[in-house]
Design brief:
Elements (H helix, E strand, L loop, with lengths): L2 H25 L3 H11 L4 H16 L1 H11 L10 H16 L5 H15 L4 H19 L9 H9 L2
Helix pairs in contact: 1-2, 1-3, 1-5, 2-3, 3-5, 4-5, 5-6, 5-7, 6-7
């Protein structure tokens, strides 16, 4: 798959994942059923759906760890009091940054900011950028300065609960 094609399908996947995570968060539906109406209402390529489902399931499987990172990098904002859209954009981006190898961190952050502009409030893009920037800065300080490799340092921070 070419870089441009991968970029396009991942962009669509991220938007789908955030919408499904929103439904999962609000209604408590499992990942698979949260995607059913999205697929019915949109022309979704299989590769976009597969990646979106991987992200949503990954967030569900690692929710405690991911929310701990949100708490750490947005300490003035209790996770359950964040706007639902912002919370799920952050969850999706942290999942991808910390647990999905070979995805450029800058791309994930830029896409999260774009999702915040599309789905969030006026202040959402700045908030999302600040939280993700703090996560990346900490990972770089703790590691060797390479954030785009496999994010092992950020994953270690999450597992340690720092």
């Amino acid at each position: 798959m070419t870089g441009e094609r991968a970029s396009h399908f991942r962009r669509k996947s991220r938007a789908l994942a955030v919408q499904a995570l929103y439904e999962m968060d609000i209604a408590g539906h499992p990942a698979e059923s949260s995607f059913s109406w999205l697929v019915d209402e949109n022309d979704v390529p299989k590769e976009s759906l597969d990646y979106a489902l991987e992200l949503a399931k990954g967030v569900a499987d690692r929710l405690v760890e991911i929310d701990q990172q949100i708490r750490q990098h947005a300490p003035l904002w209790p996770v359950n009091q964040l706007p639902v859209v912002d919370r799920n954009i952050l969850r999706q981006a942290i999942m991808e940054i910390c647990f999905v190898p070979n995805v450029p961190t800058k791309v994930v952050i830029n896409e999260a900011i774009e999702l915040a502009k599309t789905f969030g409030s006026e202040s959402s893009p700045r908030f999302v950028n600040g939280v993700l920037g703090s996560l990346v800065d900490e990972a770089q300080r703790a590691g060797n300065g390479e954030i785009d490799s496999t994010m092992t340092e950020a994953e270690n921070l999450i597992q340690e609960g720092n």
